[in-house]
Give the backbone structure.
Amino acid sequence: MMKRVSTILAIISLTGSAAIATAAVTLTDLMQTSRMTVVKVDRVTGQFLCAEHNKWTAVARGDLVQVAAGDIVRVERGEGRARLTVLRTAAEELTSPER
């Protein structure tokens, strides 16, 4: 009886560990795909070129008003066009002491 309980607890423990590892990978993937470095901005089409993915990403045109090359941004996808939030400007990135 005790051996069965130990075996069941071991299986539950391993299953839980795998679920946590999967969730961590998913969170990391989410952070990496939502944080981007702006290379170039095309305000006419409402897109910016992302350094990490080397592709153009369409966002709401109004979100690109204050965006410049070198800015670190977060993209939140939802209904319609994606929304862009500036996390750190290029000037802040260059003067940051955390290199």
In short: The CA atoms of residues 71 and 93 lie 8 Å apart.
